[in-house]
Amino acid sequence: MLAVPESAPDELDHNRRLLERYRADPEHYARLLQDLRAFKALPPARQEKMRQFDRALHEEDSETQTRLWEVLERYVAWVDRLPEADRKRLDDTTDPTEKLSAVRELRQQEWIDRLPEAERKDLLLMPALMQAKRVAVLHEEERKSRQEWVDWANAVKTRSNPGSRPKRPARLTDFPESVQTFVTKRLPLNEEEKERLTKAEGKWPRLANTILELSEKHPVLPPLPSGPIVRFIQLPPEAKGYLSNKKKIREELNKTLDKWPQFALAVNDLMKQEKRALPPLGASRPAQPDRSPSRLV
After folding, report:
1. What DSSP letter does each residue of 224-236 carry, written as one string?
2. Number of neighbouring beta carbons within 10 Å of residue 226
3. Quick one: DSSP state of residue 222?
4. pTM for the whole thing?
């Protein structure tokens, strides 16, 4: 804002009001000054490119601007966490195509590093072509797992709006296949809970209510091939995009960093409180029988 030259009078007035508001937040204002000093330290040609980029960004519609700003924020947060050598590699790469290739390579390596140890070791021993095929399979498994969770979340949402369904599901086979899989293969039910489901068969809305209650009692999230999620950077983009500016929520999550499955459960509970859909994080409550962290990877 402070670096844009030859602003129109109304724009200058707007910027002055913004500056007064930012000064009321010392931490934010100090960060702006730091960014301004960094901008002024750049070569003139680089400054002009950034001005052009800023103008092009603000010419987009509001929805596109919001999406691009979220991408930029996630990218900056990711780069800040990279080792010095990797950051220097990106800084030294000026060609856009080469930089995109470098980003993809680094992201791929991070993804491989998060795989379960046995899977990672097997993958690294494979020839390059076979390794690429195996990575593609694991990515597809992860995509399907995420989609399964989205389908389940959407099925639960329709519970409050019976008119949106073609029929009232009274039996498990009436539900979408993804819901059937969730109930029969994901939920760690005890004998008493299985009996509850059996007794609810054939009854609407008793079966739907029972499935919902049991899913809330056992917040099992489909496991991911990439292994346990224990840090913010490992969260799905949907979660990171929403939580990146939620300072209080981030402070809560910091209490469970590097703890499995506590971190994933904390994210799940917080997103639920915020009424936000969340892709699978690969965790279940540790107190459930036969569901130790080592078996949830």
Report:
1. -TT----SGGGS-
2. 22
3. -
4. 0.45
Q: Which two tokens stand for residue 9?
A: 């009078």
Rounding to the nearest 10 degrees, give the CA dihedral for residues 115, 90, 71, 107. Answer: -10
Cis preceding linkage at 261, omega within 30: yes
CB proximity list for 119: less than 8 A, separation 6 or greater: 138, 225, 227
Which tens digit of pLDDT belongs to each residue from 162-219?
554 446 788 888 888 878 887 887 777 888 888 888 998 988 888 888 888 887 776 5
Q: Are 224 and 296 in contact (CB under 8 A)?
A: no
Distance (Å, whole) CA 209 – CA 199: 12
d(CA 146, CA 223): 10
Using DSSP, state whether 82 is helix, strand or coil: coil
Contacts of residue 22, defined as CB under 8 A and 6 or more positions apart, other chains included, come to 28, 29, 32
Contacts of 289 (CB under 8 A, 6+ apart): 188, 190
Helix intervals (H) in the chain: 9-23, 26-40, 44-58, 62-80, 84-92, 96-113, 117-125, 128-157, 177-181, 191-200, 206-217, 237-243, 247-254, 262-273, 293-296
**Residue 160 DSSP one-character state:** G
Q: In angstroms, what CA-CA distances link 218 with 45, 157, 212, 284, 287?
A: 57, 18, 10, 7, 10
